Each structure stands twice: as structure tokens, then as C-alpha cells.
Amino acid sequence: DWDARRDTPACLALVAAVATVSSAGAMRRVVERAVGPALEAAATRWSATTDRLPPHAWVFPWLAWSPAAVLPAASSVLAKMDSALALWRPGDASALAVLAPWADVWGPTASRALAARRIAPRLAAACEAATVEPSPPGGLAPSAVSVADAVVRWCRS
Description:
Blueprint: H1 4-19, H2 24-45, H3 56-59, H4 67-84, H5 94-99, H6 103-129, E1 134-135, E2 139-140, H7 142-156
Antiparallel strand pairs: 1-2
Helix pairs in contact: 1-2, 2-4, 4-6, 6-7
């Protein structure tokens, strides 16, 4: 057994070497049958709140070989991110760094649904709770600035 998170570079090299003597269709089937389940298992074990290595680092290299092989892992990552975002705070920019690379893989419908379910309500609550009052020398209170920064970050993504 190989660890998709740790061994992806070596496995990619092996697949590339075998691909020189195999058809593209055969390689796609090998990746779908051997790599896909390993990616899904690794995504199931991945923790959105504690793992330091983002899953796109070990999932995305396989997109070139077979987008279908990554779909189960992508679904698992989406479910894990959905759960983790229940605890998310708008000042935490790390969520955007993990989510942004997945937008094209999940597609606009799933990405928008996740943002509407988990991100938008938190940003709205933070905006409502922010203190907007002048502070010396005529700027906004720091909490209002950090909320505004969070909203701008998410709107740009």
C-alpha cells in the first residue's frame, strides 16, 4: 500500500514511466482503479483542522491522468471542509487558502453552495457585530477593519 499524501511524487513518476509503454486509455484505467481509491482513502483520513499539507497538493497532480479518479476524493474534501467551516471565524484566512484551489474541481454550484451555507452567514454576523465608530486619529475601530478585510478577501475569491 502507498500513502497518497506522502508517496504521490514517486507514484506519479512510476505512472509516467509505465505510460511510455502503455496506451493512454490503459493508464487512465490504472489510475482510476488503483490511485482513485487511495486518494479517496487519504481524503477520508485528512483533517481540515489539523493536517498541514493541503489536499490539493496530493490530489491535483492526478487530474492530468484522470479527472474521474479524483472525484471521490474531491467529494470527501468538500464534506470535510463543510464540517470544519462550522467552526470558522472570518478573521481566519487559512480557510480561503484551502478552498480556493478546489473551486474548479467542485464546480460553481457546489462552491457557491458551500460559501452560502458556511461563509456568507459568518461574514454577515461579523459585519453586524463590528463596531464602526471613529477612533483616533479619525480611522475605524480595528475590529471593523479586520471584518472589512475578511469580506474583501472572500469577495475577491
